Amino acid sequence: MEELGKKTLQEPRIKFENVSKIFETRSQEIVAVKDYSMEVLTGEFVSIIGPSGCGKSTLIRMLDGIIKPTEGNIYLDGNQVNEEGKMPKETLRKMGFIFQQPNLLPWYTVRENVALPLRVFGLSGETWEKRVDELLELVGLSKSGQLFPYEISGGMLQRAGVVRAMVHDPEILLMDEPFGALDELTREQLNMELLEIWKETKKTIIFITHNVEEAVLLSSRIYVMGTQPGRLVSTVNIDLPRPRSLKMITQPEFIGYKQKLTKLIGDLDLSKIK
Amino acid sequence: MTKKRIESFFAPILMFLLIFTGWEIIVRTLKIPKWLLPMPSEIFKSMVVNFPAFWPHILMTIETVLLGFIIAVPIGILLASLITSFKVVNAALSPYVTFLVMVPLISLVPLLMLFMGYGMNVRVVTVIIQSFAVVNMNACTGFNNVPILRQELMQSLGASRLESYRRVILPTAASDIFTGVRLAGIFATTGCISAEYVGGNMGLGSQIIKYSQFLKTTESFACIFYVTIVGLMMYWLISFAQKKIISWKI
Hints:
The complex is a heterodimer of chains A (274) and B (250).
Chain A: H1 2-10, E1 14-24, E2 29-40, E3 45-49, H2 56-63, E4 71-76, E5 79-80, H3 89-92, E6 95-98, H4 110-121, H5 126-138, H6 154-164, E7 172-176, H7 184-201, E8 204-209, H8 212-218, E9 221-226, E10 231-237, H9 252-273
Helix pairs in contact in A: 4-5, 4-6, 8-9
Chain B: H1 3-30, H2 40-49, H3 51-85, H4 87-102, H5 105-116, H6 120-144, H7 148-156, H8 161-198, H9 204-213, H10 217-245
Helix pairs in contact in B: 2-10, 3-4, 3-6, 3-8, 3-10, 4-6, 5-6, 5-8, 6-8, 7-8, 8-9, 8-10, 9-10
């Protein structure tokens, strides 16, 4: 019995198996991702880091049914999700996507924007409506619910973007450089809020970034990608204690990880120059 | 009222007075004959005195413009939706839409009259042809410029085509569509006048030509001014609708 329990525990929530994506333009084929494999367990916080153009954003788009892989398979809870045709809503409901920009719709109020996934997934009822208000409260937007996106600040907009991805209670959050467009201070603050949310809700998170410090601070494991073609170069486990805090940034272990990763990414750039 | 609003309210009125006073003075001092260029005061007088004679024609023009416009706008938007959603439709229809925009309408009207006679139908059809194409072209621009991130958002939620259209594509394209609708309002008026000009004896266009043939230039001008008023009314109506519908800022 114990054996069985252990086995189900280790069953990966998300599995990429030799995934490749080739984009065909008029004149040439661009290999965005080549032979990428990765396994993420339930409740893990992993980051994918790499220079721009390494296909890291393409990876989570393939998982979320926005793009189909050219080769290889992607599994979610053991089920293959990259079959032909549109991904079913039941599968999509397990995931929430947070974009690089807030990506709110200007014709909806902040609250309507946050509630959008409920409307599209067809989730209605008091419990869900209450959840919208709770999430707005969680990120300090309860007073701004009836405002339009142009009336609130950039940090607030991105907070709304984050809770929009959580409103349908997905178990998995896919984050595409979510705070990359914000200033340093707001970014650090939002990272800490994100860790808090993760701790409370036990979501599985895949975080895309090109910021080493951010990746080390947040993740349990970091996948380093290289360019041309986009591929997995190295996997680094971050064995820093939790809860993490901004104070850790100056500690020797943290700096050690940071240097290791910076070197890994730096070597990539050098090999490209050669 | 703020200073800006006072300016935007009084500046056009002042300009209006300047132009017509200048016109009046020039015509009076140079003693230009009435049949060549009538005085504004006489034109305005004719607009009032001959109103009973003009009224059925004004009504007819308004009816034609509105009817044609109301049919043209949805056709333009619907066609743009199809063109931007399906490559085949785009390939099949685009050249003809461009053709309809390019061809001088006045050359089509006699042909249309050959097919449909001189009645109201031919004038409404002319208005539709003249105005749907600009709506269509601007709506296509709007539909084609929907940011990829917004489309990806709807994909990540598994939204159906119709749902994406309703929640994202149509509102994104709304301001471009309105640019087209505004132009269509103007084109509908000019299209209607051209059709009335070419044939028939109803509508302000037919009256302009009738009065100028008899050298009744004052009456002719009065009709032209009424056309302007109809055009302005269209423009205000559309601006009002735009403000009501697009309440958000980007």
